Amino acid sequence: MRAVGVHDGLSAILAQNHGFDALWAGGLGICTATGVPDAGVLSMTELLDAVVRMRRVSALPIIADVDSGFGDVNVVQRMVRLFEAAGVAAVCIEDKQYPKRNSFRGGNALEDPAVFARKIAAAKAAQAGDEFMVVARLESLIAGAGLDDALQRAAAYLDAGADALLVHSRARTPHEVGEFAERLRALGVSVPLFMIPTTYHRTTARELGELGASAVIYANHPIRAALRAMSDVLDQINRDDTTTSVETEIATVNDLFQVVGTDDLLDDEPWLGLLEQESA
Amino acid sequence: MRAVGVHDGLSAILAQNHGFDALWAGGLGICTATGVPDAGVLSMTELLDAVVRMRRVSALPIIADVDSGFGDVNVVQRMVRLFEAAGVAAVCIEDKQYPKRNSFRGGNALEDPAVFARKIAAAKAAQAGDEFMVVARLESLIAGAGLDDALQRAAAYLDAGADALLVHSRARTPHEVGEFAERLRALGVSVPLFMIPTTYHRTTARELGELGASAVIYANHPIRAALRAMSDVLDQINRDDTTTSVETEIATVNDLFQVVGTDDLLDDEPWLGLLEQESA
Amino acid sequence: MRAVGVHDGLSAILAQNHGFDALWAGGLGICTATGVPDAGVLSMTELLDAVVRMRRVSALPIIADVDSGFGDVNVVQRMVRLFEAAGVAAVCIEDKQYPKRNSFRGGNALEDPAVFARKIAAAKAAQAGDEFMVVARLESLIAGAGLDDALQRAAAYLDAGADALLVHSRARTPHEVGEFAERLRALGVSVPLFMIPTTYHRTTARELGELGASAVIYANHPIRAALRAMSDVLDQINRDDTTTSVETEIATVNDLFQVVGTDDLLDDEPWLGLLEQESA
Amino acid sequence: MRAVGVHDGLSAILAQNHGFDALWAGGLGICTATGVPDAGVLSMTELLDAVVRMRRVSALPIIADVDSGFGDVNVVQRMVRLFEAAGVAAVCIEDKQYPKRNSFRGGNALEDPAVFARKIAAAKAAQAGDEFMVVARLESLIAGAGLDDALQRAAAYLDAGADALLVHSRARTPHEVGEFAERLRALGVSVPLFMIPTTYHRTTARELGELGASAVIYANHPIRAALRAMSDVLDQINRDDTTTSVETEIATVNDLFQVVGTDDLLDDEPWLGLLEQESA
Q: Is A130 a known active-site residue?
């Protein structure tokens, strides 16, 4: 399974049109699109609103990246109820202390494993149906706490009810996450395992699958593509004082109409008759 | 003055960083980013919410593209109060009947000029302060009703209190909008005049200024750039089964941090102390 | 079945606690709580947001009062998708022209039956699951168009796919709605029929059931109770310069805690330990 | 000055109509109306949305009760920017640790005074204009930490830039808050001082003014009145199976129209002409 990080309705539609299997409603992408740092300042309901906008335009399962859960166990329980009711397939909670900073920028301390296990248990207790999943995201490797810490935490979180694990690493190769997967198997643990190859991007999804990944998440490429492209276009307009040189490099207005289904609109409206008169 | 059409917080920040003078909160861009057709289906408050997200991250004046005003005069008055209170500089109302379709796709009938003038008057009567502006957008040229119609409407809308005009055209050259500007001047009318060179993009902003434009609006280039770039990146990931080939073509994760001001965060928090211990 | 008109989370909880069977998310109540006239100025998504707040705190089925559907068939289709996805059981669309005014204040013209039937058909075509219901609300009796008109419209709307009817009347007795029900039965039509005894309130729900009502809706009593009580309390505070005389007439602070389930919070949090130290 | 705690648009309108000077956007009232416990589970932006709905319908200054500020200093700074931009006059931040519980239910530990002073300083540094106020709410008396603690904290918070103080107490008489005011004066400190006579309600606002209160806040009486009245009405409907007995005890439908300004709507719409034809 391949998931792609999306940040708005358009990117959600594109992910679906390109055949990806799931949407990763990623904190970094959504915060960046919103214009705020990915540092725990976006509220739980702002994230939810962004996710709802994705849900409305794509049928793919959504995995919501909910940082460390936005607060204590009561906040986590309300969050699960709201996200499940909104049609989200899974939330991914990471074992950092609240408030968080993005994992790639120093970031903050690991949560106490027992406290985090309680969050997982509270999350699972809050869901109404059978299908909602809680993914526990392990930050041990990012925080430099090592593989043993990650494995101990994995066991505790699975005991608490976690349905899946996401093991995060910023190594340039998948050796860490591969070894994690192998040791997990060696312990007889069989559970969906997610990987995010942001730094070890030279390894293919197929290879990560062979290493033990159930799912690969391309967490933030659409927003990074959009940022670069929009910057370049604004640069060119500044340079040329027209948009002529960018016109062939960007989507057409008609592409915009197509991608959101303008042709699917019902159009035998009374006012269309008026229109025909008008244009006649 | 050059305004650029933006659709979210990130594009609003980029427009400001690139030295543009104003933000055009354009219906086509915002609808596309949301994933819905630009056909009157996005509600007034969904547009407002999108505009508020721009307002929070950019200090540039915002001109909101409010289609035909979302309903009758009472709806228009509430809309003006809400947008003005949200810190929007201007709304641009177009003289089409409700519900609308995007001007470039057939679109719907022109509104009766007297009915539309009442909308303008209602909008102006609703504003609380002195600075808020109501821009009347003339669709006569798009609808094929001709220059005389546009000029008669312009006079009626200015009489009703419009603070500025936007004359829209889908000609490949600016001859129509230039002639409109010239005849307006000949009538002794002096009013800010906006132009949107989507189709006559070979003419520079400077040249449009010489033709009489007070402001030029690049209405939808950022979203078009984003759509193309995101599609291309997803294509490449599909082709390669990794993101390696796209990594150098897109912004870095660090670029994402920079653009939203992550470095401006206050960071002498107690938990940072804990973090240092942890990483030690 | 008895439904009660609610306007926020608290009233939704109370309706459930008092044993009612369904929530009527009524336009008049929600607009009044919001502070705007019930005249088509509240947007579709503002209504939806209010309904979502009810959905989050009550398990009762919600019937959303969506006026004439907020726009054309495309708006109606998007509305159905959004309300269904939000967990709403039914929308009730009335056969008035857009924009609407509240039925009791003159109000506006009846919609053309064929145009309205298209709205119903569009609504039904848009729903994703099998359980969502579209209720057609007949305003013929309010508009003075008579019983024959109501019956012809009922037939057309049922043909178009309506799952239920709401027949509205402002007579002081249920003779009109009773006769409507009887003639419907005489035509061999069997369909859920809703009644709103705002003006014919002397007739019990049981009696209305005998007349043919499948469901009775008390459309706006909670908001009317709240308005009167809040006004009275503010009057008394003004008169007395203290709240002493109102304290026994209003709920206690502890009642507020109880009604929203404060006792159900998980409270073995680490910080509670700190609290105990603090209070010791 | 007298402020009254309001929770939605309607209560905000009523407070203004009854001559109060300011709106207290109180956490307990807003949480209860939303249907959630006042225990830190409502997000910052949910509170903001509720406040925006008040701002839209009342011209009174709004003091927003923002608990302990929803997070760290970066969250506090974003909160201040968002609330100020929304037209809020002041935020009142309390010196409890995050997450909070309502002060009357045990509640949680006092924040370290230096940490809280940093929050105040961060809040003041974030505001854009000159008029926005940050009120520091002292919970020392509620937490049993005593008057000396309250006074030391007051000094620290004022040093950090607080524009006003709110001293909270759950004593049955105003002796604590009066002594606090007196000792503050004795220290030569002159600053606006707010009091909330929820428990010492036998003392009039005038008397509290003589004791040193600059403003008195009736924090939650409208929601308490609404809860009781709605419960009673639903009880009666259950008992009687009609609404007849409640009709004279609650506001009329016409009262609902009046309070939100339905008569101020513009109504010379084209469709009204159609209506007159229709009703003729």
A: no
- Burial category of A128 from C-beta neighbours within 10 Å (exposed 0-12, middle 13-18, buried 19 and up): exposed
CA distances from D200 to A145, D137, D213 (A): 54, 18, 13
What number is the ipTM of this complex?
A: 0.93
Instruction: Write the CB contacts of D90 (distance below 8 Å, at least 6 apart in sequence).
Output: D61, D62, D63, D64, D132, D133, D134, D135, D163, D164
Query: Whole-angstrom Cα distance, residue A109 to residue A112?
Result: 9
Provide the β-strand partners of residue B62: B23
- Please state whether beta strands C2-6 and B215-218 pair in parallel, antiparallel, or not at all (unpaired): unpaired
Name chain A contacts of B257, Cβ cutoff 8 Å. Answer: 37-38, 102, 105
How would DSSP label each residue in C220-231?
SHHHHHHHHHHH
Overall average pLDDT of the D194-220 stretch: 97
State both tokens at C260: 């929203």
Name beta bridge partners: D134: D91
Phi and psi torsions of D8, nearest 5°: -160, -175
Chain D positions in Cβ-Cβ contact with residue A83 (cut-off 8 Å): none
Length of chain A, in residues:
280
CB within 8 Å of D208: residues ≥ 6 apart: D174, D177, D195, D197, D216
Q: Please state, in angstroms and rounded to a whole number, the distance separating the CA atoms of residues C172 and D84.
A: 50
- The C-alpha atoms of residue B206 and residue B195 are separated, in whole angstroms, by 12
- Interface check for B73 against chain D (CB to CB < 8 A): the answer is yes
Among B10, B24, B34, B252, most A C-beta atoms within 10 A, so best to mutate, is B10
- CA–CA separation, D252 vs A212, rounded Å? 67
Percent of chain D with pLDDT over 90: 89
**pLDDT score for A169:** 96
Q: Give me the mean pLDDT over the B82-99 stretch.
A: 94
On average, the pLDDT of chain A sits at 92
Give the CA count within 13 Å in the CB-facing half-sphere of D254. 4
Cα–Cα dist A189/D16, whole Å: 63
Cis-peptide, bond into residue A99, ω within 30° of zero? yes
Residues in contact with B210: Cβ distance below 8 Å, sequence separation at least 6, in sequence order: none
Distances (CA, A) of C19 to C3, C26, D234, D237: 10, 19, 9, 11
Show residues of chain D in contact with A34, CB under 8 Å.
none
**What separation in angstroms does the CA of B44 have from each of A271, B82, B83?**
21, 10, 10
Mean pLDDT across A246-262: 96
CB atoms within 10 A of CB D17: 12
Flag if C73 and A115 touch (Cβ within 8 Å): no
Nearest C-alpha neighbor of A208 from the set A243, A247, A166: A166
CB atoms A234 and B197 under 8 Å: no
Q: How many CB atoms lie within 10 A of CB D171?
A: 13
CB pairs A-B closer than 8 Å: 285
Q: CA torsion angle for D199, D200, D204, D205 (degrees, to 10)?
A: -70
Mark which residues 99-158 of D lie under 8 Å from B by CB. Answer: 115, 122
How much is the pLDDT for A266? Answer: 86
At position B7, the amino acid (one-letter code) is: H
How far, in whole angstroms, is CA A53 from its chain's centroid?
A: 14
From CA A57, how far away is CA A17, in angstroms rounded? 11
Dump pLDDT digits (tens) for A4-25.
Answer: 999 999 999 999 999 999 999 9
C-alpha to C-alpha distance for B38 and A10, rounded to whole angstroms: 13
Give the number of residues written for chain C. 280
The CA distance from A95 to A138, in Å, is: 6
Nearest to A82 by CA among A98, A96, A71: A71
Average of per-residue pLDDT across A42-69: 98
Question: For residue range A66-75, what is the model confidence (pLDDT) as tens digits?
Answer: 999 999 899 9
Using a 10 angstrom Cβ sphere, with 0-12 exposed, 13-18 middle and 19 or more buried, the burial of residue B277 is: exposed
**pLDDT tops 90 at residue A278:** no
